[in-house]
Backbone:
């Protein structure tokens, strides 16, 4: 049986994450956290270019001035358009011996948001941070084990966020000018929610790690549809293509046993499908 999401890059990443579509270049950037590497995938040529990173790379954002800001294990780094790390902007606000950055992205005002995670999973000692364009770092949501699912509604009035082990996706009122959040509430429950994206109708697409599917929720948190893929561990969604109507999904093969990998050999690949409702352009970091 043909599944809705098909593999477009059988790269066998250990922990593929953070797909970001570049409208300017019409390519998909993504990371392998464990490799570690920043990657550039051209869907037209099917060529993937990989740039090694010196440490685990949890997430990144495109910059308005070119290149990237990357959340590496020991802090925030500027990376040039050719994938070379240039300089560290700020140190990591945790002990990198057992914590690292995870899911993150820029908001529409040009700030970079990124969460951390406790790799030992023995305490909820991670946090969601906001890095302003003046490089001031502010802790926003403490008490997290694995920060994930960060996204904003099309009107920028709502921010979504998940702590994966809690199986809860929360919504917050978002004040775009200041970057303040308030009024936390449960948006939806989902088994092991990982990275996410929001489409133009305000629907929230959530990758279900260890669930082998992507779930689309309405702006009210109603489960609208589920889409399967031939990998048990999808990690994050992104909209791309010239019309932003191609849904890309990264995946992982770390810690999967030989039996599962024999059954699902494309685990760690990038998957895609066409959708009816387009996504939103990915914002850039303005710092």
Residues:
């Amino acid at each position: 049986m043909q599944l809705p999401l098909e593999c477009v890059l059988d790269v066998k990443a250990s922990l593929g994450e953070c797909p970001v579509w570049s409208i300017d270049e019409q390519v998909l950037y993504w990371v392998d956290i464990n490799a570690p590497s920043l990657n550039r995938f051209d869907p037209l040529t099917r060529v993937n270019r990989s740039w090694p990173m010196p440490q685990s790379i949890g997430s990144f954002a495109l910059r308005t001035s070119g290149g990237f800001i990357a959340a590496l294990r020991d802090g925030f780094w500027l990376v040039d358009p050719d994938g070379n790390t240039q300089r560290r902007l700020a140190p990591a606000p945790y002990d990198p011996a057992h914590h690292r950055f995870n899911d993150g992205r820029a908001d529409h005002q040009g700030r970079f948001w990124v969460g951390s995670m406790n790799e030992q999973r023995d305490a909820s000692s991670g946090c969601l941070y906001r890095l302003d364009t003046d490089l001031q770092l502010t802790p926003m949501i403490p008490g997290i084990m694995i920060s994930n699912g960060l996204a904003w509604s099309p009107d920028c009035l709502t921010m979504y966020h998940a702590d994966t082990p809690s199986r809860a996706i929360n919504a917050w009122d978002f004040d775009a000018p200041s970057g303040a959040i308030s009024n936390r509430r449960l948006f939806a429950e989902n088994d092991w929610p990982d990275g996410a994206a929001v489409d133009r109708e305000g629907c929230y697409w959530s990758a279900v790690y260890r669930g082998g599917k992507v779930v689309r929720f309405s702006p009210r948190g109603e489960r609208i549809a589920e889409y399967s893929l031939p990998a048990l561990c999808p990690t994050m969604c992104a909209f791309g293509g010239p019309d932003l109507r191609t849904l890309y999904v990264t995946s992982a093969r770390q810690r999967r046993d030989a039996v599962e990998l024999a059954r699902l050999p494309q685990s760690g690949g990038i998957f895609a499908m066409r959708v009816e409702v387009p996504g939103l352009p990915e914002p850039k970091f303005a710092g």
In short: The chain has one domain: 6-274. The chain has a mean pLDDT of 97.
